[in-house]
Amino acid sequence: VYKRQKPTLSNVASSGSYTDLDNKPTFNSLDYKPFTTVSTAGELISALSAIGNNGGVIYLLPGTYDFTSTTLSAIGRDNVMLIGSGAGTVLKFGANTKLSFLGNRCGLKDLTVTREAASSNELILLDSDSTHTSADFLMDNVYIDCNKANASGGFIEITSMGLTNARFVNLIIDTDEVNALITKSATTGITGLVTGCCANAALTVPLDITLGTNIGITAG
C-alpha cells in the first residue's frame, strides 16, 4: 500500500536567533534607508554634515532638539528624511531661527516643530540653489505648535520657483493666529497637496496647491 510521506521541514533557526534566519530583510529593501540615530541637537547637525550625496534617514529619538539660537539649514543634500519617534520628538526654534530645506526628495515625519518666541518668520523654509529646488518635499504626521507665539509670517514658506509635488499630510497646527499655513514668494512652478490637516485657527494655502480634506484650512 502506497503511503504519502510527510515532508521533512528544516529548522528555520537552530538557535532561535535572528542572525540564523535565511533571507533576512536588508536596509536596502526598506522604504527608508537608515543613516544614523541621534538624540541631541549637536548630533543632528553632525549627522547632516556627514550624510553623503545619496542621502538617507536620520532617526531622532524622543527629546527636545534646541535650535533657538541656530537655524537648522544644513539640509543641502537630496533624499534626506528626518523621522522622529512621535510627538515627543521636538524641534524647537527661536524667534529668528528656522528649518531650511534645499535638497530634493527630503522631508519630515513623526515629530513636533515648535516656536515659543514671538516672530514674524516662517518655521520651515523650502528654498533652492543652483543644484536643488526642494522638489518632492514631504511633511507627514507633524505637530506644529505656535500657540504661544506670533506666527504672523506663516508657518511654511516656499521660495523655490521650481518646487513641485510638495506634500503636507496629517499635520496638526496649534496656533492662535489667523494666518497662512503656507506662503510663497515664487511666482511659478509650484505644485503640491495639502490633505488630512487641521488647525485651531483659520489658515490658508496658495491657490495653486491642491486641497484635500482639511479642517480650518482653505485656499487663498
How many individual β-strands?
A: 19
> Which word captures the global form?
globular
Main sheet overview: 14 strands, parallel
Q: What is the beta-strand fraction?
A: 35-45%
Helix vs. strand class: mainly beta
What multimeric state do the chains show? single chain
Mean pLDDT over the residues: 83
Number of helices: 1
**Through-space gap between termini:** 82 Å
Poorly predicted regions: none
**Helix share of residues?**
under 10%
Q: Could you spell the SSE succession in H and E letters?
A: EHEEEEEEEEEEEEEEEEEE
How big is the Rg? 21 Å
Folded structure, characterized:
The protein has 220 residues and is mainly beta. Helices cover 5% and strands 39% of the residues. It is built from 1 helix and 19 strands. The protein has one helix at residues 41-50, and strands at 34-38, 56-60, 63-67, 72-75, 80-83, 89-93, 99-101, 107-115, 124-126, 138-145, 156-158, 166-169, 172-174, 179-180, 182-184, 192-195, 198-205, 210-211, 215-219. The strands form 2 sheets. Strands 1, 2, 3, 5, 6, 8, 10, 12, 13, 14, 16, 17, 18 and 19 form a 14-stranded parallel beta sheet that branches. A 5-stranded parallel beta sheet has the order 4-7-9-11-15. Strand 1, helix 1 (41-50) and strand 2 (56-60) form a beta-alpha-beta unit. The longest helix has 10 residues, at 41-50. The chain is globular. The model has no long low-confidence stretch (mean pLDDT 83).
